[in-house]
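Morning, I've got a small favour to ask if you have a moment. I'm working through a protein record and want to make sense of it properly. The fold is given in discrete form, as structure tokens running alongside the sequence. Can you walk me through what the tokens say about the fold? Thanks so much in advance, here it is:
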Amino acid sequence: MTNKDIEASLRQTQARIRTAAERAGRDPESVALIAVSKKQSAEAIRAAYEAGQRAFGESYLQEALDKISQLADLDIDWHFIGRIQANKTRQIATHFAWVHGLADSAHARRLSEQRPGEMPPLNVCLQVNLSGESSKGGIEPSAVPDLLNLCETLPGLRVRGLMTLPAPSDDETTQRQPFRALRMLRDQLATPTRPLSCLSMGMSDDLEAAILEGATFVRIGTAIFGERH
């Protein structure tokens, strides 16, 4: 895609977000767009940045580190949205502002210990597996309170909310069910001192359903950059 194509796709995605938020009776500004740039070039990210996008999501650590280095002149908000591996936690803790997909107590401890002291705590969303699919990452809903409580004792982490990656569906009513379940789980666990205000849910094919159920982050790749190379 050309730079103009990326800019046009970004504008179209932003319009979808606005329309869905208005349909839900929400302020469109309450929904943040993460441009999922895995398998995209540094040049494509720069084009989206020049069109106003600031938050980018990466899933493959080495690829992400290469692009972070190439784009060091830009004030990008980097979000790690892939599966976490124990041998990758130091680099994640050092180079990212957010992690979407924390689902393991050992990873939580490592990320906290390895977060550089001069940096603010790493923002994390706990990944919840609502479908029971073994192929999907995340913890069972019943395990979320224990991981939340652990993370609150770790000075290098700041739990901001919950994240999920549901099974795909073409039907909006079906799409909304896991997103509603995540919002209800958040509502059960939130406290005044732990508001869990972030719900990271919704991608290119189901962002409307996610926003209708309260998403505050939508993670959009294909609709902005086209198919991955």
User: Anything to note?
Assistant: Residues 3-23 form the longest helix (21 residues). The longest strand covers residues 157-163. The chain has a mean pLDDT of 96. The CA atoms of residues 148 and 159 lie 7 Å apart.
